[in-house]
Amino acid sequence: MFKTFFTKFSAVAIAATTAFISTASVFAQPISPSVNGRYEDLVQTIHCPEDEESYGNFNEYGYWGGGSWCGEDGKEGYWVYDAPNWYVWASETTDELDPEASAYGSYSGLVQILECAADVDAYGDYNNYGYWGGGSWCGEDGSAGYWVYSYPNWYIWNYAN
């Protein structure tokens, strides 16, 4: 009797454990280094396992102007840490942006978004400013590129279409 009970109990325990492991993997799907398509045009991968201690297994750091990192010359772009590597992307996808942000398709290759609500007084709700060489703007380092103001943000693009 005990043998039958333990056999049935063991079978149920194995089935329950297997089901738990199977469903756990569904809930813990990893995010891709492109953050599920948010970033595009990979420009660099830097192997840096020691950063896992500071940034964890995954960190969407965002835009950085580049510089020395883990013994390499890190490129300008959107940085994502997916242990043990940093992935540097040239641009952020624009699928969710209002068409106004790219001057209605005049520009492509988004490199930076700067929040600057105070500029509405000088530039209005919308301004296709054009090319600027970059520099300090609204307390941040603005990239060189084609600048478009769509309240409350500046959108900076690499290319004129």
Summarize the entry for a quick read.
With 161 residues, this protein is of the alpha+beta class. Helix content is 21%, strand content 45%.
Can you walk me through this structure?
The chain has 161 residues and is of the alpha+beta class. The chain is built from 3 helices and 12 strands; from the N terminus they run H-E-H-E-E-E-E-E-E-H-E-E-E-E-E. It has a 4-stranded antiparallel sheet with strand order 1-6-5-2, with no helix packed on it. Strand 5 (77-82) and strand 6 form a beta hairpin. The termini are far apart. Mean pLDDT is 81; it is low at 15-30.
The span between the termini is 79 Å
Q: Spell out the helices and strands N to C.
A: HEHEEEEEEHEEEEE
Mean pLDDT: 81
> How much of the polypeptide forms β-strand, as a percent range?
35-45%
Name the helicity range.
10-25%
| Total tally of structural domains | 3
Strand order of the largest sheet: 1-6-5-2
Question: Which residue ranges are poorly predicted, with pLDDT under 50 across at least 5 consecutive positions?
Answer: 15-30
Instruction: Report Rg.
Output: 24 Å
What are its keywords?
45% strand; alpha+beta; 4-stranded antiparallel sheet; 12 strands; 161 residues
Task: Draw up the topology in text.
Layout: H1 2-27, E1 39-47, H2 52-55, E2 58-64, E3 67-69, E4 72-74, E5 77-82, E6 85-92, E7 107-115, H3 120-123, E8 126-132, E9 135-137, E10 140-142, E11 145-150, E12 153-160
Antiparallel strand pairs: 1-6, 2-5, 3-4, 5-6, 7-12, 8-11, 9-10, 11-12
